[in-house]
Each structure stands twice: as structure tokens, then as C-alpha cells.
């Protein structure tokens, strides 16, 4: 597929290239582009017409200063203490905007679950497996793609964990 075809799909060029490298070029035509931003999980779910929990958020945190990617369903929040314990870190914080772009090559609101500039540790919350299909950002705040969550986690190199906030 040419760069023109990648641009037609709406995918970020780096993400389109990552799909081709992973043998997932057939996913390019399934990428959906929206005229309004789908930067938040709620915006994406409304645009797609799916449940909020079917959105896969790709969130970068800093564990003792080292970037880590957490994949979380759109209806849940990440429990930083559970992430800290999972990683054996002393401190876990939300990553600064600069660290997100430096690590992934994408802006917040468009970070896909894979195809990043650098390789990071990936934790994927088990809640993603509650669905047959989840939707994730395709490298821009305007684009999303559908994928079976087990396949998505595998391509991201993720470890399945329980790191979502529990509401009592």
C-alpha cells in the first residue's frame, strides 16, 4: 500500500507503516476517520456508536521515570497503586505530555496501542477481554480502528493484568 492509501485511511503514517510491518495492512481500510476529535474515550464511543468500555485507551505512565504503556477499557480508570505493585516500582505517575510524544511519537488523544517510536513495557487490563471487538486510536485524535482484544494485546506485546480502579 502506498502512502497515499495510508493517508486515505486517515491513519497516522507511522501507524500505517506499523500495520504493514505487522502484516496487518488489511486493517487500513477499516480505520474510521471522524470530522470531530475522538480524543477522549467518551467522544470515540459516541462517534462509533459503541459502549464506552469497548474503547481501548492507550495511556503512558512513568514508573520510576521509565515510560510504561497501560491499555485500559474506556469506562475504567487506571489504579496507579496496582500498576506500581505490578511493576515493582517505587512511584508511578501520569507521564508528561512531552514524554508521551517522545516515547510513542504520537500526541495524547491519538496514541495507538502499538506502532510506537520506542519499545516500552505494556500492561493490558483484563477488562478489554470482555468484548469481541474493541476500538483504539489509529495515531491521530480523529481516527480509530477495530480489533479483537486478544489480537490487539498480542500485537502490543502486552501482559494481561488487573489494574483498573475498583468501585465498591
Description of the molecule:
With 168 residues, this protein is of the alpha/beta class. It contains six helices and eight strands. The chain has helices spanning 3-9, 13-21, 41-48, 80-87, 97-104, 149-156; strands spanning 32-33, 55-63, 66-73, 92-94, 121-125, 134-137, 143-147, 159-161. Strands 1, 2, 3, 4, 5, 6, 7 and 8 form an eight-stranded mixed sheet that branches. The longest helix has 9 residues, at 13-21. It is globular. The termini are far apart. 41% of the residues are buried. Residues 1-7 have low confidence and may be disordered.
Quick structural overview:
It contains 6 helices and 8 strands; from the N terminus they run ααβαββαβαβββαβ. It is of the alpha/beta class and 168 residues long.
Give the helices and strands, then pairings.
Blueprint: H1 3-9, H2 13-21, E1 32-33, H3 41-48, E2 55-63, E3 66-73, H4 80-87, E4 92-94, H5 97-104, E5 121-125, E6 134-137, E7 143-147, H6 149-156, E8 159-161
Parallel strand pairs: 2-6, 3-5, 5-8
Antiparallel strand pairs: 1-7, 2-3, 2-4, 6-7
What pattern of helices and strands is seen along the backbone? HHEHEEHEHEEEHE
Radius of gyration: 15 Å
How much of the sequence lies in strands comes to 15-25%
Structural class: alpha/beta
The averaged pLDDT comes out at 92
How many separate helices? 6
Tell me about the biggest sheet? 8 strands, mixed
Amino acid at each position: 500500500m502506498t502512502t497515499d492509501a495510508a493517508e486515505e485511511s486517515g491513519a497516522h503514517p507511522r501507524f500505517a507503516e506499523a500495520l504493514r510491518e505487522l502484516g496487518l495492512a488489511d486493517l487500513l481500510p477499516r480505520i474510521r476517520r471522524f470530522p470531530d476529535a475522538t480524543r477522549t474515550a467518551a467522544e470515540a464511543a459516541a462517534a462509533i456508536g459503541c459502549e464506552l468500555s469497548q474503547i481501548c485507551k492507550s495511556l503512558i505512565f512513568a514508573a520510576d521515570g521509565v515510560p510504561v504503556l497501560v491499555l485500559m477499557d474506556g469506562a475504567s480508570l487506571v489504579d496507579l497503586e496496582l500498576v506500581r505493585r505490578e511493576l515493582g516500582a517505587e512511584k508511578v505517575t501520569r507521564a508528561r505530555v512531552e514524554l508521551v510524544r517522545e516515547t510513542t511519537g504520537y500526541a495524547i488523544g491519538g496514541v495507538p496501542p502499538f506502532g510506537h517510536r520506542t519499545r516500552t513495557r505494556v500492561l493490558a487490563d483484563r477488562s478489554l477481554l470482555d468484548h469481541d471487538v474493541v476500538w483504539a486510536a489509529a495515531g491521530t485524535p480523529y481516527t480509530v480502528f477495530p480489533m479483537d482484544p486478544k489480537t490487539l494485546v498480542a500485537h502490543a506485546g502486552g501482559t494481561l493484568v488487573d489494574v483498573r480502579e475498583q468501585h465498591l
